[in-house]
Each structure stands twice: as C-alpha cells, then as structure tokens.
Write a structure and sequence with these properties.
Radius of gyration: 24 Å
Bound molecules: zinc ion
Number of strands: 16
Strand content: 25-35%
Distance between the termini: 28 Å
Length: 406
C-alpha cells in the first residue's frame, strides 16, 4: 500500500558494489514479473519464478501461505538470523505507464513496486548465497503474497515463517518516489498507519418530500454526522499526533420529492499511535449515535480493523542507519505516511525496520506515486535495494548492528 508523495530536495547517488550480472538478472526478473502481475493469493506464476530462481542458486525453500515462499541462506559462519521480506502481489489497475515491460494483463498492474521488491530480494539471495563462506548467520527470505489485501504476513507468521530458524530481526524495502534514486530512507518509530475501515448506516422514516414533519429525514442527519466527525481530527486529537477520518462513499435516497429513510456511508480511519487508534472507535460511535439521536434517527456502525501501524524499532533503525552510512549509503529520514503495510505484523513479532528505497528520477519518468496507472519505476534503484538487504543480513548477522532486546 502507499502513502503520499512529494518532490525530493536534491539528487543523491550511491556507487553500486554488486556485480553487473546480479543487477542485470534482478532487472530481468523484475520485468518478467511486471509483465504478468498477479493479485493477492493468486501469485502462482510469481511463486514459480521465485522457486525457479532459488533452485538455480541452490537455496533451500518451501511454500507457505498458499502462494508465498520462504527461502533460507545459511552462512558458513555463526551469527544471527535475519528476515528479509518482499511482497509479490499487484493491484487491480490497468497500466498506463508506457513502459516497455508494461503489464500484459488488462486490469492488473504492479503499481506499487512489489515486482521490484521480489526481484531485489532474489538479487540479495544471490549475493548472500555466493558469499556464504564469509557470511555470519542466516538469512530467511520471506516472499509474501497479498500485501495489498487481504494480507499475507499474518498467515506466513501463523505457518511458522519466523520460527525455524528463529528470526531475530526483520527488514523490508518499499520503493518511494519521495526519495531520489540512489538513496534509502530509515525513520525510527511509527512510519505507516493503521488502516481501519468503517461502514455506517443511518435509518429514519421515509415519506413525502412535501411533508417532512411526518417523516424522519436521514439526509440532514447524514450531513450533520459528516461534519461532526471532522471534530475527531480537528478538536479531539492532539494536533501534534496524527489521525485521518475520511468518508469515502455516501449513498441514499430515491428521488427529489421523497424523504430518504436510509443513508449508507463508508470510510477509512488512519492512525499511527495505538492509543489514538484504540480511542477512535469510541469517538466515532459517540458522535454517530449522538447525532442520530438528535435527529430522531438510528445509526449502525460496523468497524473492520485492518493492518496495525508499522513501528520501526527505534534502536535497530538507528543502528542500521549508522551502519549503512558507514558503508557508503545515502540515508535519508523521510516523514512517516498514512499508508498501510502488513509488514507491521512481522515488526510486531521481532524488531523490524522498514526501509524506503528512493526511485525518484525525472529522466526515466519515475515521478508518479504508487497506485497510479502512470507509475514507473527507475530500475537504477535496484542495485541500491539489493545492497540494502545484503547489508542488513550481514550487519545484523555478524553483530555489527545490535539486535535490541525486547
Ligand atoms: Zn501498495
Ligand atoms: Zn506496496
């Protein structure tokens, strides 16, 4: 899933140290996956590509969560076990990017960069496998289905993805057009939002549009409810904290001279702070029930709780950012977003850090936000992404990046 975007301030470049063959192979795999996008839990072809590549590298692997794959690279030297996660699913969007490797399937598109995430993890797997004689520890490769929904992280955890070997720290990459190609972004603390959904139905009493006093009109009640809900963000939440309350759909009524007896709305609730998230449902209920009562109507509110917020472990984030800078990476500290991401479940289980991978590059049209039909990905970022995953596995593996105790 995706958050907001902005233009980056200035160009940043980093010199790649992986071999050209590794980078070229990852680009080829990215294009192959890009042409054949698959939605959540339909990633059979992508799963087969991952298995084919891991087989070619001699890396042990197993299927998980239907269309996911767990691979294991065992270093020859003792050390810690890291989890490296890549999501594999596409979005129900018809591609309009103009890229040579554009989707060949109408209505499906890799518009969130998950094709590149999968290809970069395969690239990192190659580097680690080829250097396993000097690699301390173990890298658990987590190829995850269905990040865009309904969610593949939790099923992978439930099926033991983090258990054998026991993963001690986890990371992931997500492409980010806010950052220039060649740079990465590491921000401690909450970096993505909890994405919860609500469905609201207001019921009154229908009637003739000319005789409102004989009915209970839910249209003005709905209008008052929408305005009153703005109070949650505007007046009830610390201005320095974050919450979004968005009504995305509204539907009701029959014709101009009929008083509506029912209005349905749906909306999304985005929060970073678990305490603010927990309190939000109560505030929502108090307002919709109170406004409905004031109008003599009745409100029914159904909550659907989505992914929790991604919280980057503060100590691990700072330690890995320092390590990455020492190894020549350009490390930014981008602002959190209100997008959602089910990496949150991995990071709840073990210390985790979500790393943003800069892809902004006007020269190749890599300027659009994720989830856009025009989205393009600067493949020049792929070597940096591979190196980032490798650096995490090596740095945490040999103890250079300390694993925080919990
Ligand atoms: Zn997305
Ligand atoms: Zn995504």
């Amino acid at each position: 899933m995706w958050g907001s975007t902005r233009r980056p301030a200035k160009p940043k470049m980093m010199t790649a140290t992986i071999s050209p063959e590794t980078a070229e192979r990852a680009v080829a795999i990215r294009r192959e996956i890009h042409r054949h996008p698959e939605l959540g839990f339909e990633e059979h072809n992508t799963q087969a590509i991952v298995e084919r590549e891991l087989d070619a590298l001699g890396i042990e692997h197993r299927r998980i969560a239907a269309t996911g794959v767990v691979g294991i690279v065992r270093g020859a030297l003792p050390g810690h076990a890291t989890g490296l996660r890549a999501d594999m699913d596409a979005l129900p969007i018809t591609e309009d990017s103009g890229e040579d490797c554009a989707s060949e399937i109408p209505g499906k598109m890799h518009a969130c960069g998950h094709d590149s995430h999968t290809a970069m993890l395969l690239g990192a797997a190659r580097v680690l496998q080829e250097s396993r004689e000097t690699f301390h520890g173990t890298a658990v490769l987590l190829f995850q289905p269905a990040e865009e929904g309904p969610g593949g992280a939790q099923p992978m955890i439930d099926e033991g993805a983090l258990d054998d070997p026991r993963v001690e720290a986890v990371t992931m990459l997500h492409i980010d057009p806010r950052l220039e190609t060649g740079s990465i972004g590491i921000t401690p603390g909450p970096v993505n939002a909890a994405a919860d959904e609500f469905h609201l139905t207001i019921r009154g009493k229908g009637g003739h549009g000319a005789y409102p006093h004989k009915a209970i009109d839910v249209i003005p009640c709905a209008a008052a409810t929408i305005l009153a809900l703005q109070n949650i963000a505007a007046r009830e939440t610390d201005p320095l904290a974050s919450i979004v309350v968005t009504i995305g759909t509204i539907e009701g009524g029959y014709r101009n001279n009929v008083i509506a007896d029912r209005v349905k709305m749906t909306g999304t609730l985005r929060t970073h702070d678990p305490a603010i998230r927990d309190a939000a449902e109560g505030k929502l209920r108090r307002i919709v029930d109170g406004v409905a009562a004031a109008y003599g109507a009745h409100a029914q509110l159904d909550m659907i709780f989505g992914y929790p917020p991604v919280v980057n472990d503060a100590d691990l984030s700072e330690a890995f950012a320092s390590y990455a800078r020492e190894h020549g990476f350009v490390v930014e500290r981008p602002a959190p977003t209100m997008g959602g991401e089910d990496f949150a479940y991995f990071a709840q289980r073990v210390p985790g850090v979500m790393v943003r991978l800069g892809i902004y590059n006007e020269a190749v049209g890599s300027i659009h936000s994720g989830h856009s039909p025009q989205f393009r990905l600067d493949e020049g970022a792929i070597p940096t992404g591979i190196e980032t995953l490798v650096a995490f596995a090596r740095g945490v593996g040999d103890g250079s990046v300390a694993i925080p105790s919990r």
